[in-house]
């Protein structure tokens, strides 16, 4: 049953105390009505109001937190099936699979080679998926090796005793125990409850997964993730999509309102290209934790780029940090180019500059994350903004006094020169693709 | 109580478009569910994979691509080898040599290549221009004529040149018109309307709604395709029910991740593996968003994506 924001507003204290994180009670009520926040975020609701509301307004998909400290991640909490309807909120996380018979340290070191920053976001494999192969002691040894490494652990094990022993080692790091199924769920719930960790549920097909999840909810445990991996790629896709679709339907089926685990090492073993292809599909279609053989740049450059794109809020442009980006081994004497902080512009421009091989300093000033012409039209890219940024940030660090501005704002040349004493302003071509030739020509003519 | 899932089958469907002729002819489109949602209703025509070849031959191609075509000396050899690539359903000949900013080959020279390729292969063909609007208008009009009888997709008619290319391909020479727009649902629809108004039947139009490589503003591609499929299927918008074909190879192999050499980026590892990664990730993503066909170039990518499609169908 959907409640309107106004119905909820009537039950709030209407004090606009902001303790819920929203600016006003009205704003809070609207968010609750959309399923974006939970009603319990308001500390001043009366108990009767709470009881009346919490069932009706609970978000259809639970938000589950796993891990601790820097390795704490939020999964789930989605409200839409397609990003253009609103936005996706919890990006999928990548887990590297290890088994006790592998050299676990080496596997971890290999995956850790991928750790870089892309537009303000750290890109690395956030989780380790430790898979038990029957030998409880070896499993615990493997878990020991990955504990304390800044990764969130997923313990893939159905043997209650082995899980208990492993939890003794790592439960403070809030791992996920991916081990409950129709045969053992009562015991597993007990263990997970006691350790205070999230429990992963699986089933031989979608119906068994559904029944087991319902049974676990009846036992009062709702800190769950659903392992939607099936016997085949086709079944895995079908289950993952149907689970998400059921909980975000008009009449939500909250039994399926949990994040998912998709294990590509199981359905596409030892096939790197296939794992990249499938991971891409599951980034778009409803994977919350994606398990792969390893992480390397061939996988990561594509998958992290895709994830970052798809999990941006459509209402907020992707921005790069303002600053000076030296390219092609540039130093303080290299020519300065400037453009806006819209991520797409930055990527296209910096890519072309790198292709030119000409050492240069790319200066990005704050333009509200808009493209060149839009920023100029909105007054966020002006001779004043450029001159101010150059004076404050660039002049103390860079000795070159040659500035190249985007061709689309050639009109700014005169004003910038007037405001920046001692600088020579050069106008670049209109399109980024023309930059390579443009820079090479300037270099050949000795102008830069 | 078992799970009671509702089917997401729609009453409307995507047009099924036949490409090529004879035994090797294939159909793209025709589905009435979202991409790969075979659990809602069967998808009769699986998405198809094409192999891109260029009139410039193998110059500048990655080692794995060169190795595959080893021993090929003529365009006919290359085309035959492309048609035989494991996983390939069709071949796309790109006339990039015609580009006035590049080799600037004459239209006549290019037509000789088209003729050679048309005569060499019996799989369905896509003929793509050089992306220069002025040159393409002439180039693709002539190509429609030279490839007469092949029922090929002519890629592409854009807003600026759709009249000539649309009329030649779609009316005079019985080819399929590829309608290319730039990642925007309204532009895609508008171009379909314009081409239909020329008299081209909707069953003779396929769309290239534009793409980017993953990581490069790809969210626009996902949302454009998602919205097109939603409009076509749930609102029965006839002007958006054309199947989508997406050339991936050109984009994916032209980004830094695929082009940076191992000397420049030692920590990134093997260059070719990165290129394949960008190509398969982009291809899998556009297929999951609604493309009915993709155009790739690396043998590993073609084999992987074709296998993925089979597994998901």
Helices and strands in order:
The complex is a heterodimer of chains A (448) and B (313).
Chain A (H helix, E strand, L loop, with lengths): L4 H7 L13 H10 L12 H11 L5 E4 L6 E4 L16 E6 L5 H9 L3 E3 L2 E3 L3 E5 L4 H11 L5 E5 L3 H11 L5 E5 L4 H11 L2 E4 L4 H13 L5 E4 L5 H15 L12 E4 H4 L4 H13 L4 E4 L4 H14 L12 E5 L7 E5 L3 H14 L3 E5 L7 H6 L5 H12 L7 E4 L7 H7 L4 E4 L7 H10 L4
Parallel strand pairs in A: 3-6, 3-12, 6-7, 7-8, 8-9, 9-10, 10-11, 11-12, 14-15, 14-16, 16-17
Antiparallel strand pairs in A: 1-2, 4-5, 13-15
Helix pairs in contact in A: 1-2, 5-6, 6-7, 11-12, 13-17, 15-16
Chain B lengths: L16 E3 L6 E3 L19 E7 L8 H6 L6 H9 L6 E5 L12 H14 L4 E4 L4 H14 L6 E5 L4 H11 L3 E5 L4 H13 L7 E4 L9 H17 L10 E3 L1 H4 L3 H4 L11 H19 L3 E4 L2 H14 L1
Parallel strand pairs in B: 3-4, 3-10, 4-5, 5-6, 6-7, 7-8, 9-10
Antiparallel strand pairs in B: 1-2
Helix pairs in contact in B: 2-3, 3-4, 4-5, 10-11
Fill in the keyword field for this structure.
heterodimer, A: 448 residues, alpha/beta, 3-methyladenine DNA Glycosylase II, Chain A, domain 3, TIM Barrel, Rossmann fold, 17 helices, B: 313 residues, two-stranded antiparallel ribbon, 10 strands, 40% helix, globular
